[in-house]
Amino acid sequence: MNKVSLIVSGVLVIAVAYLFYQTQQLTSGPEQSEDPIVSDVINEDESNLSLAFVRGDSIMLNYKFVQIEQDLLISKARNSEIKIERELKKAEKESQGLIEFVNSGQATQSDAQVAEQTIRELEYSLAQLERAEQQKISKLEAEFQRELYDRITKYLKKYGEENGIDMVFNYEPGGQTLLYSSDVHDVTAEVIVGLNAEYEIENAPEVE
């Protein structure tokens, strides 16, 4: 759960950085300074930029897409754990049976060698299964991260164009890209409403 939450926070920072870069590209003149710190962005009056910010933690908690996808990721991760635990128990049972057979005094040296090789193969298979399940979950998390990034950047671009906003910053305790702003610039609630409205439209049942 914490890992997924960190992914969401990281996506918000990347999305804001992307929008910041895109705006700089659009507002820069042909003789733009090579120093990225020296920019008209510093002076809102001179650049005529309209600024706003969103609270990333609030979007993470209230965006329905995040809520649903987090639950799905957690469910799939748990299913992977159950699958690995089930195979582990089967392997342990088979290994224990082989060990008991070898120690019974009835097994030949050849039987012991076969049992040892079988146990090694079981261990290798379990390690392979664990790696495969981890890769599967990592892939799902990466896909979730990409889709969340696309959704947020696409909506913030649309929201900015509709409301005359040039830049939207992310404000989040402990990892903010905005140190201070009056709440008058906080558009989090409107953005969440808009994101959820679009998500509900996407998932509405088709009317025949």
Question: Largest beta sheet: what is the strand line-up?
Answer: 1-2
- Supply the CATH superfamily name: Skp domain
The percent range for strand residues is under 5%
Bin the helical content.
Answer: over 70%
Using the coordinates above, name the CATH class. Answer: Alpha Beta
Walk me through the structure.
The chain has 208 residues and is mainly alpha-helical. The protein has a single domain (2-202), classed as Protein Binding, DinI Protein, Chain A. It has 6 helices and 2 strands, in the order ααβαααβα. It has helices at 2-27, 44-47, 56-62, 64-103, 109-163, 188-202; strands at residues 51-55, 167-171. It has a two-stranded parallel ribbon. The chain is elongated and about 90 Å long.
Describe the secondary-structure layout.
Blueprint: H1 2-27, H2 44-47, E1 51-55, H3 56-62, H4 64-103, H5 109-163, E2 167-171, H6 188-202
Parallel strand pairs: 1-2
Keywords for this entry:
208 residues, mainly alpha, Protein Binding, DinI Protein, Chain A, two-stranded parallel ribbon, 2 strands, elongated
